[in-house]
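Let's sit down with a protein and look at its sequence and fold side by side. We need material for that, and I hope you will provide a protein of your own picking. Once you have written the record down, we can walk along the chain together.

***
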Amino acid sequence: MSKSYILSIFIGLLIGKNSHDFMKKSAFIQVKIENISLSNLGFIVFLKRDGNEDVLPICIGAMEAHSIAACYNNQSFPRPLSHDLFKSILGDLNCKITKIHVTDLIDGTFYARVFIQNSNEILDLDSRPSDAIALALRFEAPIFVHESVFKAAAVNLDKTKEKEEEEPVDPIQKLKEDLKKAVGEERYEDAAKLHDELKTKTDITHNQI
């Protein structure tokens, strides 16, 4: 096999790789955190792009929600959270996170990539979106979502809210949701009052049957 043939293959691979990278970059849109809330599905972080009313809801764990909310609201704690520790480790290794990508949505599960830069290269690591977002906030790194993922899973909260307002509200179900939210936010005094109110309404309902 001649050197010129090998060189032509190598150049072709480089061109193909650069073209593929460009296609990948152009397919991502930048988003920002719009809100973090608790629903009947658990904690949700909402990602929103500029100039668009739709938001991308991603379900996350309670610990990750706490970590994201703490950094998002500039809260500090006496001892570092896990993502704070990871930031310190990366800093001591002269590394930083340059960006994160939410890349895919498969069977209801979101996938993400974290890009870490050191002095020699940029590492591309698999990650859960919740961890990726928590780290991006700490490094003030941009958050990107693949446009196909955003298109497939984004919702318009205003339209959803209008639809919910049109539907009759079950007061007992509403109390259950408020109770769950109070516990999640560690408002235990409010949770106790809601629990008593829920028990009273439930007893009245049972007596009327």
Q: What stands out?
A: The beta strands are 28-39, 42-48, 54-60, 96-106, 109-117, 122-127, 143-146, 155-156. The domain at 27-163 is CATH 3.10.690.10 (Bifunctional nuclease domain).
